[in-house]
Design a protein that fits this description.
Elements: E1 17-18, H1 22-25, E2 42-43, H2 86-97, H3 114-119, H4 128-140, H5 173-177, H6 186-190, H7 205-212, H8 248-255, E3 258-263, E4 269-273, E5 279-280, H9 284-288, H10 302-307, E6 312-317, E7 320-321, E8 324-325, H11 328-335, E9 343-347, H12 356-368, E10 386-391, H13 393-404, E11 409-415, H14 425-430, E12 432-434, E13 437-441, H15 443-448, E14 463-465, E15 471-472, H16 479-484, H17 506-514, H18 545-564, E16 579-583, E17 587-595, H19 597-601, E18 610-615, E19 634-637, H20 649-663
Parallel strand pairs: 3-9, 3-10, 10-11, 11-16, 14-17, 16-19
Antiparallel strand pairs: 1-2, 4-5, 4-6, 7-8, 12-13, 14-15, 17-18
């Protein structure tokens, strides 16, 4: 065991006599001291070499006595005195690296003095102090110094210094020529799904949209301070001029020329009833508060779609829902000073209940009638094409039309356009509510909407085994899958199994009375996977299986053909217009559901334990990207929910700016 020797105590033991460096005992001097000027040698306390020495605490007072060192000439690395054997240095090295055996220096100088305050800044003892102290002593005695022990974690004198790290830039030619040498991070560009592992319920998309649409409060000028302002001698301070500079993104939005077409997404167009004097039948606020009774169900026969235009007609895009802005600000900005820039702004509404292939044909007919596409290619006139800004489902319809007629487009902005969206599975089985009205979009109504099936994933990804975390893929384009797992009550011969019985709580009792008014389940224009199944007589389908099964088989086949037509066509690669993507990655978005094996899919609580990822609340950021093969001129991420993506004028302007530069006019 080592013997701790404190300041002021006598030194005993057999340790070697150690000389102190003159430079450490005298004030600074320009002349180096000689060996003859060395003071009387003083003994050091013995330093044991066995491992048991670490049981007692070692302090600075154990090796240094007050008044022996001039603090002005040394730093924290020169505290320990010096020449010791290799075995003793090992023991000191162990004590020095142990944080429990090293304490702050106390009592080196008189309390409160300047030297004492300096000593309080010293840190722990490091082993290279010993080597430095020995070097100073040998230099004072005219001897050649050399290191006597090495610490692996420190820089060694004989070891070549490590070369500076070479930082590769993403613009380096080798990176551009060798795509395998660069591994882009999906976390930074498309969000981090691990941030939403603790989320188990969908967010309120409407509330998020209301917050996104709130105006920015102006900066009011500061009033002069009354205590320092004299109205008889001082002049009134002038307010700072208002900053009227326009950002490059908004400037590009203001200066765009030609035809600009804005189109909404799923449930994003106004519908009017021709048989009732063009009365609006799709106005979410009036429908949500039961102020208007409507029936949005579509017939199951193919001719019912064609004849629907004689009954229900679209009337432009749904630009806002009360305080929720969808595209109202965007249209207002584009229409302001439009004549001065030769800009023609159109909002194209469509019946979002019908087949997406049929809607694509109607979009092509609409684009052919625009002024930008009125040129005669056979006569040498070139069609410039229209700039289309499409939201959600509107982007899928636009991509299908673009693959058929790329010459009708000069650029496309896809805002929250999902390649797939498993959110639709919940409404197809359980229905979804609009504010306090759960009778508008029942499971049967959603079953008859052809566009509902356009979001189904071809990969079959949605369900995950809760016990093994393995995916449970399903063929969503096979009628047998729908019947076996009761994905829709309209084609199944049995109802979903009831959820396991749980103890009734006060919260569970209250939820039964407040479920219809729960705003978190509001799916006015953004249906999501319901967390709880709907109940009531309105949810029981009335359509016979003899009609629903042939209808679903035909619809799934047509939808699969539509989805195949969305893929990149190499033959038209050079004809594609420039494309940009506007997306978000800040909101928890449903990416799947955990179930107890395949049998768990059949249960009524299959959509309770949900999985979430980074997205806009409806569309995952990864699914909002262009399909493989398409070239993206610009990707812009904004902090918006799905409904309010087009309300971010800066984000839309950045996309438009990239497209204008790409097309060259």
């Amino acid at each position: 065991m080592s013997t701790a020797v404190h300041a002021g105590s006598s030194h005993t033991g057999t340790s070697p006599i150690v000389p102190r460096s003159p430079s450490l005992l005298s004030p600074p001097s320009s002349n180096p001291p000689s060996a003859e000027a060395s003071p009387q040698l003083k003994p050091l306390p013995p330093i044991p070499t066995d491992d048991s020495s670490g049981e007692e605490e070692t302090t600075y007072n154990d090796v240094i006595r007050p008044g022996e060192i001039n603090v002005q000439e040394i730093d924290a690395e020169s505290i320990i005195a010096p020449v010791i054997s290799r075995s003793q240095s090992t023991a000191l090295y162990r004590n020095a690296l142990s944080p429990t055996r090293t304490t702050a220096p106390t009592g080196l100088f008189q309390p409160g003095s300047a030297q004492d305050k300096r000593t309080q800044t010293y840190g722990r003892v490091y082993p290279n102090f010993v080597a430095r102290e020995k070097t100073q002593v040998q230099a004072a005695q005219g001897k050649k110094s050399r290191p006597f022990f090495q610490v692996p974690s420190l820089q060694m004198p004989n070891k070549k210094p490590r070369p500076p790290a070479h930082r590769r830039s993403s613009s380096h030619p080798s990176v551009l020529m060798d795509p395998l040498s660069r591994n882009p991070s999906a976390t930074s560009s498309l969000g981090d799904d691990s941030k939403f592992l603790h989320i188990h319920a969908p967010a309120n998309a409407r509330f998020k949209a209301i917050l996104d649409g709130l105006p920015n409060f102006p900066n009011f000028p500061q009033l002069p301070q009354l205590a320092q302002f004299n109205p008889f001698t001082d002049s009134v301070p002038e307010t700072a001029p208002k900053n009227t500079a326009v950002s490059p993104a908004l400037e590009a939005l203001d200066n765009v020329t030609g035809d600009v077409v804005i189109m909404g997404g799923y449930r994003g167009s106004i519908l009017r009833d021709k048989t009732a004097g063009n009365r609006r039948v799709w106005v979410p606020l009036k429908v949500g508060f039961n102020l208007r009774k409507i029936n949005l169900e579509v017939g199951l026969d193919p001719e019912d779609e064609e004849n629907m235009k004689d009954k229900i007609a679209p009337s432009g895009m749904l630009t806002h829902i009360g305080p929720v802005d969808i595209s109202k600000k965007l249209l207002k900005r584009l229409r302001s000073n439009a004549d001065a820039h030769g800009r023609r702004v159109h909002e194209w509404g469509y019946d979002w209940r019908l087949s997406p292939e049929l809607l694509s044909k109607r979009l092509i007919t609409f684009l052919e009638g625009l002024e930008c596409n009125s040129g005669n290619p056979e006569g040498g006139e070139k069609r410039k094409g229209a700039l289309v800004i499409a939201h959600s489902l509107g982007g899928l319809i636009t991509r299908h039309a673009m693959n058929q007629r790329p010459d009708l487009f000069s650029g496309v902005v896809f805002a929250g356009t999902p390649q797939t969206c498993v959110n639709i599975l919940g409404p197809l089985r359980n229905g979804d509510a609009v504010l306090m009205n759960s009778k508008v979009f029942t499971a049967q109504v959603n079953f008859t909407l052809r566009t509902s099936y356009a979001f189904l994933p071809e990969s079959g990804e949605c369900f995950v085994d809760r016990n093994t975390d393995k995916p449970l893929p399903l063929d969503f384009f096979n009628i047998k899958t729908w019947q076996d797992y009761c994905l829709s009550p309209c084609v199944s011969t049995f109802t979903p199994y009831p959820a396991p019985s749980t103890s009734t709580s006060v919260l569970g009792t209250l939820s039964a009375f407040t479920s219809t008014a729960d705003l978190s389940k509001d799916r006015s224009i953004a249906p999501q996977t319901s967390s709880t199944p709907s109940t009531g007589a309105d949810q029981h389908p009335t359509l016979p299986l003899s009609r629903t099964i042939p209808y679903l088989e035909r619809t799934l086949s047509e939808t699969l053909r539509f989805r195949k037509a969305l893929e990149y066509n190499p033959e038209k690669g050079a004809l594609y217009p420039p494309q940009a993507v506007l997306y978000s990655k800040t909101s928890p978005t449903v990416r799947g559901a955990k179930v107890d094996g395949l049998e768990g899919i059949k249960r009524a609580d299959a959509y309770v334990d949900l999985l979430f990822g980074a997205g806009d609340g409806v569309c995952l950021a990864k699914k909002a990207m262009l399909p493989e093969g398409y070239r993206c001129a610009k990707r812009v991420a904004v902090d918006r929910g799905h409904i309010g993506l087009l309300g971010d004028l800066e984000g839309v302007g950045k996309c438009v700016d990239a497209l204008v530069k790409e097309r060259g006019w």
